[in-house]
Amino acid sequence: MTIQVTPEVQAAYNKSLDTRANAYAPYSKFQVGAAVKFKDFDQVFYGCNVENASYGATICAERNAIWGAVASIGKQNLEYLIVTTDQEEPAPPCALCLQVLSEFYDPEMPIYLANLQGIQSQLLLKDILPIPFNSFEV
């Protein structure tokens, strides 16, 4: 069952579907799209997963979107994240992506989990990563 979201979040979800289609996933066949929106910025940044035969060089959609955003506008406070897969039960960000989120962004930030039928759930970063690793205050 899809949840109700703002028109802005719905538009970002729709674009994350298009971005997901660009994923390069010849090994896992698991295509992921992501959208990140920063507070006080109108632009939404998108990413898809890009795999590599050297698995360590693979990047998740979430980190791809975040790195692009940081490269464009610098470190800012994130307003929300959308993760879009084709699974019936949408997938949350992986541990690496959660750590990146915890280092850069607010634990109260909503994370929307979506599949091809729409946004299925909303979680808070602090609920999926209650005790992040933080070696210093940023």
Distance N to C terminus: 38 Å
Q: Considering DSSP H and I runs of 4 or more, what fraction of the residues is helical?
A: 25-40%
Number of helical segments with 4 or more residues:
4
Can you tell me the CATH topology?
A: Cytidine Deaminase, domain 2
What is the string of helix and strand elements?
HEEHEHEEH
Strand order of the largest sheet: 2-1-3-4-5
- Going by helix content, strand content and strand pairing, the class is alpha+beta
CATH architecture: 3-Layer(aba) Sandwich
Number of domains: 1
Defining traits:
alpha+beta, globular, 22% strand, Cytidine Deaminase, domain 2, 30% helix, 138 residues, five-stranded mixed β-sheet, 4 helices
Give structural notes.
By secondary structure, the chain is α+β, with helices and mostly antiparallel strands. It has one domain: Cytidine Deaminase, domain 2, CATH 3.40.140. It is 30% helix and 22% strand. It is built from 4 helices and 5 strands. It has helices spanning 7-20, 61-73, 95-104, 125-128, and strands at residues 33-38, 44-48, 78-84, 110-115, 118-124. It has a 5-stranded mixed sheet. The radius of gyration is 14 Å and the shape is globular. 34% of the residues are buried. The model has no long low-confidence stretch (mean pLDDT 93). Its EC number is 3.5.4.5. GO terms for molecular function: cytidine deaminase activity. This is Cytidine deaminase. Belongs to the cytidine and deoxycytidylate deaminase family. Residues 7-122 form the CMP/dCMP-type deaminase domain.
